Amino acid sequence: MASTTTSGLTRRRGAGGGGGAGDDAAGNGDSSNGAVNRSSTSNARDSAPETSYESGENGHKIAFDPRDISESAERSKQPKLTLMEEVLLLGLKDKQGYLSFWNDNISYALRGCIVLELAFRGRISMQKDPSRRRFPLPDRVIEVIDDTLTGEVLLDETLKMMKSSEKMSVSSWIDLLSGETWNLMKIGYQLKQVRERLAKGLVDKGILRTEKRNFLLFDMATHPVVDSGAKEEIRRRVRTVLTQRTVVLNGSQFLPENFEFRYVRTIALVCAAYAANVLENALSTLGHEARERAFAQTDELLAEYSQWPFGRKAVGNGIGANLPQVITEEVNKAKEKELQLEVVAACLSVFTRLDSLL
């Protein structure tokens, strides 16, 4: 039997201070650099975070970091959960708080979700080069078009790497972030402890809690679900896309009514969950035949929306008959963002060959 004791793991705020293994080292490095540069006022001023002041009710000045304000504004425009967090949440066992030990796909799929999320947030796009069409979608080069931090640690860490690196293709970035490379010069691009850091982010958002369980030979931090409503909302959304003839996505804090690309994002979630081998967890309440139809529909969606332009024809056996229309409307409303959606299609194309990559 696994014994549990509650502990309070939290993550540090901001892009430079996630919950990864290298964060403390990075923090110590900043401190030592600051000490070395104290003799240079300009260097110290550049390395120190910008601080602003506002007057409080009692007349005292209150210091604050403007980055906190900008990150809060960014979060208010986005769904409460990122694609990575939604996929991870689908995979977690509710009470036990850990993923299946036999799931080899989820790590790679989560890195793909990071690239997807950056594209949806308008941070990256395909390089604007007409000759790109000569290459398959996953082999087209992407570039950073907005380096504004998002306030999500893993997204900001990846964004900084993409900004400072040479331009590479979608599949290359997902491979590098996953550590799937033989190039030792680029092994530093691998994101470490992604699942644990995402789980800690969900703890911060009140969706999970942290416990320590003993598994006979070792102790492991686990993250049981606290807010079951959040996970059920994700399951409901997935089932709606995969079982309903007319797909209608109701607004919620996890997918606001006025949010851009609501249907495209939901299809990306379904395809990412499928690639991560956690989709079945959203379909457990369906009968055998309904599940088979849902998986067949997922295959159709993945085949259709891993191409660009997508949403050109009805897919499936009468399920989601309105999806091509609503997705065409979403794309037409944001013609200037077609290069970002091309990145989305490229990520889904990578997911279609996930089994052969791993």
Poorly predicted runs are: 1-48
* Shape annotation: globular
| Tally of strands | 7
Q: How many helices does DSSP assign?
A: 14
Helix content: 40-55%
Sequence of secondary-structure elements: EHHEEHHHEEHHHEEHHHHHH
Read across the widest sheet, the strand sequence of neighbours is: 1-6-7
Look at the helices and sheets and give the structural class: mainly alpha
Rg calc: 21 Å
Strand content: 5-15%
| Mean pLDDT across every amino acid position | 81
Largest sheet: 3 strands, antiparallel
> How far do the termini sit from each other?
33 Å
Explain briefly what this protein structure is:
This protein has helices spanning 23-36, 41-47, 66-77, 83-91, 106-120, 153-164, 170-178, 194-204, 228-243, 262-275, 288-305, 323-333, 338-352, 354-357, and strands at 4-6, 52-55, 61-64, 124-126, 142-144, 211-214, 219-222.
